[in-house]
Amino acid sequence: MRQLTVTIPDEFYDSFIEFFKHIPDVSIKEKEKNEVPLWQQEIVLERLKNSKPEDYIDAGIALKNLKVKYGV
Fold it and tell me: Are 28 and 21 in contact, with CB atoms under 8 Å apart?
């Protein structure tokens, strides 16, 4: 038996899965890359809701501060 990894557009996903479900001895394993857990999404949304514009810092400045602080 062989193993195959396939990347398909979202609009073809359901049709693709339905087609392969009917083939004997085929197993379908779905894996989401970089999936963010729901609890973490909720924390981020809560933080965004409670933040003020003066709480934000430019990414370039933040990286520069990290390099100075940690020598990275």
Answer: yes
26 in Cβ contact with 20 (< 8 Å): yes
Q: Could you list the mean pLDDT of each consecutive 10-residue stretch along the chain, which spans 72 residues?
A: 85 89 83 81 94 91 94 83
Residue 44 token pair: 């981020």
Q: What distance in Å separates the CA atoms of residue 42 and residue 49, rounded to the nearest whole number?
A: 11
Which residue from 34, 28, 24 is spatially nearest to 16, judged by alpha carbons?
28
Structure tokens at 67: 């390099």
Burial class (CB in 10 A: 0-12, 13-18, 19+), 50: exposed
